[in-house]
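go over this:
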Amino acid sequence: MGKQFILVVYDISHDRRRTKLHNTLKDFGTPVQYSVFECLLDEAGLRRLKKAVGKVIKPRLDRVRYYPMCSECLRGVEVTSGPEVLHEPEALVV
């Protein structure tokens, strides 16, 4: 199976944990708004991401949501400013 587009959204009130999670997520995707990341991951990458998030957050206090988005949903995304929506690079055949 190929890569899947995952929108990661979080709400963490503790400054140090929020910063640590933000820095952790930068290893997996692109920040597009404060507390919102776009990630293009295969299954193994998503497992690694969730494991890394689990090491940072406190589940009773912090909220993290993972929204998988299908290709049809992505076609409907409109960006007014900031980085474009992540996408798989086109295969280059030489």
